[in-house]
Amino acid sequence: MSDQVHGFTGSPSVEMPAPTAWPLVLAAGFSLMCAGLLTDVSISVLGTVLAAAGCVGWFREVLPHDREIAVPVVADDVRITTERRLVERVPIADEQVRAWLPVQTYPVSAGVKGGWAGSVAMAVVACGYGLVSAGSIWYPINLLSASVYAQAVALSPDRLYSFHADSFAIAVGLHGLGSTLVGLLYGAMLPMFPRRPIVLGGVIAPILWSGLLYSFLGLVNPLLESRIDWVWFMVSQCAFGMVAGLVVVRQTRMTTRENVAFALRAGVEAPGLMPPHQSGGRRS
């Protein structure tokens, strides 16, 4: 910024590049050149002429000297006022300066409880489907074990509608492991979606998961995919999501500690971080 521009003294001004339309002409020329490849050669010829004119005109704006104009600087007296008497601050862990969102989250135990509760609801719905549709509660259990158990892959009727200890143990292990992992995921994700977490965890996520599983199970195991009733499968997934979500959101939240010093999280006494001991007291 200077008070003298081009030999005369006046109000403070700043030198800026002069406005020009040549870049627009150059861009239009290149666009017509490409469009002519799909339409007619005359369009490309017109685009070449415009692009050449745009290049020459733009170069003359900066060579041999830059074309500039003096823009006057007008001082604007702006006063920022507010009617608020207090400054609202986000409550964060241990009065730290910077907040990590979400500010509060659920403990790991909340996700485990939610996963186990959802697994019971899902098992009830799945066994109810087996009893109503196939006349045996072992039908969905054997189907689940058939996803990894070699002796159940054949899916023979005798194998599907009767109890087998090995298939039952495998199905319980798979169901428990999967429910626990998904419950932990719910406990970590639901605090990030404060609006209608039950709708997200109980309806939207199970439907998306069911659609994803349906899309690739037919390629991996077509015989198993043909045995699954996907409507009931989706209903059981929604039952899991709703029950797990309700259990998780009813747990007590805890303040996140990502931005707390490692020494405080580990319980290590460090100068400047731990409160000083009172005088006269002995350290244990």
Mean pLDDT: 76
Sheet with the most strands: spatial strand order: 1-2-3
| General form | flat
Low-confidence stretches: 1-8, 280-284
Strand content: 5-15%
Domain tally: 2
Descriptive overview:
The chain has 284 residues and is mainly alpha-helical. It has two domains: 12-72, no CATH class; 104-255, no CATH class. Helices cover 55% and strands 8% of the residues. The protein contains ten helices and five strands, in the order ββααββαααααααβα. The chain has helices at residues 22-36, 41-62, 108-134, 138-146, 157-160, 165-189, 197-220, 222-227, 230-249, 262-266, and strands spanning 2-5, 8-17, 68-72, 104-105, 254-255. The strands form two sheets. Strands 1-2-3 form a three-stranded antiparallel sheet, with no helix packed on it. A two-stranded antiparallel sheet has the order 4-5. The radius of gyration is 35 Å and the shape is flat. The protein starts with a strand and ends in an 18-residue tail after the last helix. The model is unreliable at 1-8 and 280-284 (pLDDT under 50).
Structural topology:
Blueprint: E1 2-5, E2 8-17, H1 22-36, H2 41-62, E3 68-72, E4 104-105, H3 108-134, H4 138-146, H5 157-160, H6 165-189, H7 197-220, H8 222-227, H9 230-249, E5 254-255, H10 262-266
Antiparallel strand pairs: 1-2, 2-3, 4-5
Question: Concise description?
Answer:
With 284 residues, the protein is mainly alpha-helical. It has ten helices and five strands.
Which terms summarize this structure?
mainly alpha, 8% strand, 284 residues, single chain, three-stranded antiparallel sheet, disordered N terminus, 2 domains, disordered C terminus, two-stranded antiparallel sheet, 5 strands
